[in-house]
Structures are given as structure tokens and as C-alpha cells.
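User: Assemble these into one structure.

Assistant: Restating your components, then the assembled model:
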Amino acid sequence: MRVSIGPLQYHWPRAKLDEFYQAARDSRADIVYLGETVCSKRREYRLADWLETGKMLREAGKEVVLSTMALIEAESELSSLKRILDNGLFPIEANDMAAVETLQEWGLPFVAGPTINAYNGHTLKELQACGMRRWLPPVELSGQEIATILAEFRELVPNADLDVEIWTYGRLPLAYSARCFTARALNLPKDQCDFRCIDYPQGMPIDSQEGEPLFTLNGIQTQSGKIQNLCTHLDELPTRGATILRVSPLDLSTLRLVDALVAAVRSDQPFEFPLDASRHCDGYWRGAAGMLGQAQEPGESGSPVAPQP
Amino acid sequence: MELVCPAGNLPSLKAAVDAGADAVYIGFRNDTNARAFPSLNFDRETAAQGIRYAHRHARKVFVALNTYPQPRGMARWIEAAETALQLGADALILADIGLMRLLRDRYPDARLHLSVQGSATNRQALKFYREHFDIQRAVLPRVLSMSQIRSLAAHTSTPLEVFGFGGLCIMAEGRCHLSSYLTGDSPNKTGVCSPAWAVRWTETTQGLESRLNGVLIDRFTAAEAAGYPTLCKGRFALDGNILHALEEPTSLNTLHLLPDLHQAGVVAIKIEGRQRSLSYVRRVTEVWRNALDCLLADPNAFRVREAWDAQLADLSEGHQTTLGAYERPWQ
């Protein structure tokens, strides 16, 4: 299995992006995804900067992929998308059917990202015919469901060349809206947001009224409150079809986790990295509610329940 | 401009037809559609009766098969589609491209619509569905502004259907996993959001609490109307404040945009609410039929009547309505 650094989901200042990707160059990651997937207004790095960063990483031996936006509404966003797809240097992660359509028209292979809906083998077959060569399943699928989908796909398309990348570590992208929740939380209109999400390098946490972490607001994206951590399932991941493990950046320290993960995968040793399990979840992978952590069952987090009077 | 109304059972379908719906959309009684609620929806016999009733009145019936077929579960969706086609359904509403491929190959003449769950929000995505599967109409997610809809309608050859009234999804449909994050069930996987099985109500000293799979979604004082705990409309803690962090409990109402939608070339208005009562279906259909008739008779003279707004507010969540994303300030 190889290890990837997913596209940064947050809005960081340029200097922090420089620092992070220089450190990523020195990390043991095999693959680095670059680009903006959440909000087209974020422009600390423009396309030229992402391409320069990509070249720097490629020279250091990394495979580089350019990720694209999940929610594309305006004509201007379609034009930006086209410029990214037309970059001529790096392959693309498609996160909307607009990208799939264009890449298929141009005959270019692509990675299907987590917001491309593929829940069965027939859908994978269709995407593969469009040029998909790597699949990152929707985050709500379980390990078992992913294995079943792949088995169904391989019956339909024997000998297909398909990498399977699993969201192994990081906050889960759960939803996208027209509304900017960060701007709304700060009582700012979306059109005059002042790019304030730059002040929240890991988003804004929202908790239940009982203090239970629920979600994380990141502009128009809603993420999980907890961090999905499948590093405790390293033995099982390849048996479900995983060929690449994705780590989604939270901060610079994420790169140390990447190194520990690479070490574990390469040496067949247990994964050793200090982590706070109370902040983690792996429910989706086990076929349960996504928010649940290791062996935690539904209802444990709440108080006693009673029917409505 | 077509009025497309919801029906969760045969009496509601008849009420929608009687009240002036041009088309009624329904689903079967399983997880093949995005309102897979207990004791809702149609079996083969009631669907047959409903389609006969609608056709006798020269109206159409669309069948929603708009969840994503589960791994090795495709046969159930194909069976539902074939049943619908055998019974004479006028269109199938689909989200999954695997299902679209199988149906398009087997039934080249079937009329296929793209469900809102297909999440197409731009002309290039619409082109994908049209070129690959000959999709003849697309329902737009409730995330686009009026000016974006106008631009989209001008740039696409796919006829567009937009939501006019009903429950307001604030997330791009088909791209929302909030419900499965808390409960394991989601619109894409099992055709439900904030499922009823996970809801618990508890009277406490702090008020009436609503929970979803154990998670506190809201807490109501005696003076407040307690709404269903749809998780994106709960009150949560953000930076020390308790508030509706994602969205207020409110419904979508685009009556005031009807002339704009008409002028933009939108071909159909969709009413949300297959899970709602017969009386809801009848009353909403009556108001929108009336409004559409006024609009089509003389688009320049169209004015929203106070009575229409009042009747719709009465049928809305929290008795509040919003223009949602259609109106920029909402964003």
C-alpha cells in the first residue's frame, strides 16, 4: 500500500502553505494531492502556485495529482476547472461530474474523488469507461461494502486497472452547501466574507448542547467533528481492496503521522503514533454511524431515552 | 410550465390530480427511493391504480428511483424500474449512473429524469447526464441562486425542474452524509435523513429534548413549538453560543420568484413532501395551480396574493418560509 496526502481542505495563508508543502516534500508520502476543493474564492495559492509546488514535489519523487472543486455552480468556476484540467503536467482528481465529463471528452485518465457518488459495481464500470483509474469511495461506505462493490465491479470488468484509495485519517467531508457557514457564524454576508475562514486553520467546531463534538464548519463544507482514524485497521484495509491510504492534512504534525504510517505499511510493523482516541471515529468503516469510535455503540453518548409523551 | 406534486399514497395522488397537478411523483415501498419511510409509498397495485387515475385525467406520474443501488443490490432497483415502466409511468427519476446505463441500454425509449440527488449544479454536469444517458429533464439542487438558474437555463439544452415549495435541504442533495454520520442511515444509502427509528423525545427539567441516535439535537421550552429533529436544523453550541448553526427550521417558498423562473425557461416546478399528509398535498397543489394559472394567463400582471402566502406559511415547518439559496442574502 502507498500513502497519500489529500488535498488541504482548509484555508491557510500563503506562508503556511509554503511551509507545509516544503515539509511534505521531505515527508515519506508517496502521493500528494494539491489544489482547492472547497471554495473558489480562496486564492492564497493560484493555479500557477499549485503547479510550481507540484513540480517541486515531483522532483522530490512524489506523485502529484491536482484536485478539483466539489460544488461547481458559476460559469467562472467552470472556466477555472477547465484551466486546471488543461494544466498539461499532472493528472486530476474529479470531484464533480463536470470534471468527469470534460476529462472523458479529452480522453484523460482521472481519480474519482469522495464526492463522486459510486455505491455499486455498475457505477464503477461506468466511471471506469469514462477514464477513472483510481477510486476514493464515498466516505459513508463501510470496508465490507467497498469490498463487495469491488468484487461486483471485477466481475463486470475483469482485469480492470483500478487503484483504491481509502480516507484513512482526517476530518471527513460530510456536506457542501450554497451557504458559507463560517461567514454566517461571523454574521458576514457570503459575498463579503473577508476570507475569514483563514482565521480557522482547522475549521470551527460545533458541539451539541451537551458538549459532544458533532461537526466542523469549514466555509461551505461541513466536516465531521471527530477525526476519522483507520490507522488501527491497517491489517484489514488491504483485504478490503485498499491500495492507497489517504491522510487529510490538519496541520504540520499530520506529516509526522504520514511518516509513521509509511513506516508501518512498509515494514509490516504495527502503527505507532501518539493519538487521542477520544477525538477519533471509525464507525463508517465498521458499518455503523460515522461518529462512533472503536467499539462504541449507539446511545452510549446520550442520556436515557423515553418515548414522546 | 408543469406543476409536479408529491404523493406518498393513493389518496394523496388522487388529491394532487384533483387539485390540478400536471404530474405526480411517487415511490415504491422500499429503499429504492429517497422517502423510504415506514407505511409510506406504493406497492404494485396502488401504483397501477394511481397511474390509471392520473392518465384518465390526462396527467402524468413520475416514479422516483433516486437512491443509489447498494452493492449487489441492483436487481431491486431494476425490478422497481421495470414495474414502473410496465404500469405506464411517464418518467423515471434517477440518481445513479450505473442504474441509468442499464435502463438506457434496455429501454431506449424510456423517459429518464435526473433526480436532485444526482447533484448536477452546472451545465457541464448536465451535459454528462444528457450525453451518456439521454436524460430528458434535470431537477436542480436547492443550492443555486436565481441568477445562477437563469444562467444555467440559458447555457444547457437539458430542460430544468426546480423546487418551488416544501422542506428545505440546505446542503447540495446527494452530497450530504450528515445523517449517516450520526445514525448510519443516509439519503444516498437508505433513502432517509434523520430516520424516525433514531428519534427519541425526553421531557427533562431543562425542557423537552429531541435526540437522534442519542445525540441531543434540540431542547425546547414549554413556550416553543418542538419540531422534528432534522439534524441540520438543530440548535448547537458554536463558540459558546447556542444557536441554529446550520439552518433555522423553515421551509422553502419560491412563489415570489415564479415569474423569474418562468422567464428563465424552467419547465417544471416541483413541490416537496411525499411524506406529508393528504391535506398538505391538496392545499399546496391548489395554491400553486392557482398561481401558475394566473402567471400563464398574463405573466406581466402576476402578483402573489396574500392568501397564497398565508396558506403556504401555514403548511410550513415552523410556519416560516424562505427563498433559500435562490435569494443571495440567504447565503
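Chain B has a mean pLDDT of 94.
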